[in-house]
Write a structure and sequence with these properties.
MetI-like fold, two-stranded antiparallel sheet, 4% strand, Polar amino acid transport system permease protein, amino-acid transport, transmembrane helix
Length: 339
């Protein structure tokens, strides 16, 4: 049966709603069940069949005053080392980007040395500094010293541990900061210069706030890594931090596994707190990035737009070939604008 234009528009039946069928993933369910079973077997075995864990011993020492005191030293090592490393890392990053070739080479050599040698070796070397440099002498060169200070009195093992950790970490922070600075478009720097801002204001008010979005995530990872790296300061030797303190207690009680569990519990607790802080810092510096409205709507209604050259209170109307009227010009002419 042929439909003619005089019969009016064709009436279509109301379409039936789509019944979406959720795609099933049976192997995912099987894999999840297997993981749960394996975890349950491990937990049961550790709690019942492994007396070497000695959970009663863990509960005895988890809040021991010596352990709590060691946590304080571990946090101090982490905070002091990271503060120095961040400041020195920013300076090294600026030196790496300097137009002066001598400054660039000095920064590169620093990074080459401290990134190319193990941190444990570096800490061992810092522990030997009082033996290598027995005293520090101040005065006019090629004359008798005015002031002589014994290195052991000036630099404690705690101070040497902080210096060793900070200098090693500064090499990594320099690359993180440099990557963040390079991530900011060069046009931002040029625009700030065009506005008359100096280097300091350009860096602190334009470049660094944008670079922080790139710098914060790896810096948070470095803080967490530094917390765990403090367990190596026994090479200095500094023996009052968490791991070494728990190891010394285990040497007396002959229970190394429970003391390792105690140290691990506190490392996990502190790391969890740091991860929460990192999350909120990343959220703060990522404001306005990657956020787009779900629906894009025009700022004005289409019907309110008039055509240039048309006058009167009514909107311009065009007659199509089939007799209909429209505010859109017909496309019969060259370039789509002819009547």
């Amino acid at each position: 049966m042929t439909h003619s234009p005089a019969d009016g528009p064709v009436q279509h039946a109301e379409p039936a709603p789509i019944e979406a069928i959720k795609l099933r993933h049976p192997w995912r369910t099987v894999f999840a069940v297997v993981l749960i079973v394996l975890v349950g077997i491990f937990v049961y075995d550790a709690a019942v069949n492994r007396p070497v864990y000695n959970w009663a011993e863990v509960g005895t020492y988890v809040f021991d005053t010596r352990i709590v005191s060691a946590i304080g030293y571990t946090l101090q090592l982490t905070v002091y080392s990271m503060i120095i490393a961040i400041v020195l890392g920013v300076a090294l990053a600026v030196m790496r980007l300097s137009p002066n070739p001598v400054v660039r080479v000095v920064a590169w050599v620093y990074l080459w040395i401290f990134r190319g040698t193990p941190v444990y070796v570096q800490l061992t070397f810092w522990g030997l500094v009082p033996a290598i440099y027995k005293s520090i002498e101040l005065g006019i060169p090629f004359t008798d010293a005015v002031v002589t200070i014994a290195t052991k009195e000036l630099l404690s093992f705690f101070t040497l541990a902080v210096i060793g950790l900070a200098l090693n970490e500064a090499a990594y922070m320099a690359e993180i900061v440099r990557a963040g600075l390079l991530a900011v478009d060069k046009g931002q720097d040029e625009a700030a210069t065009a506005l008359g801002l100096g280097w300091w204001h350009t860096m602190t008010r334009v470049v660094l706030p944008q670079a922080m979005r790139v710098i914060i995530p790896p810096t948070g990872n470095e803080v967490i890594s530094m917390l765990k790296t403090t367990s190596l300061v026994t090479a200095v030797p500094f023996t009052l931090e968490l791991y070494t303190r728990s190891r010394d207690i285990a040497a007396v009680t002959y229970q190394p596994v429970p003391m390792l569990i105690v140290a691990s519990i506190w490392y996990l607790v502190i790391t969890s707190v740091l991860m929460v802080g990192q999350y909120y810092l990343e959220k703060h510096f990522a404001k306005g990035v990657g956020q787009r409205p779900d629906i894009q709507r025009p700022s004005v209604a289409t019907a309110s737009i008039t055509v240039v050259g048309e006058t009167g209170s009514e909107h311009a109307k065009y007659t199509e070939a089939d007799g209909r009227t429209s505010i859109v010009p017909p496309h019969s002419g060259t370039g789509g604008g002819g009547r």
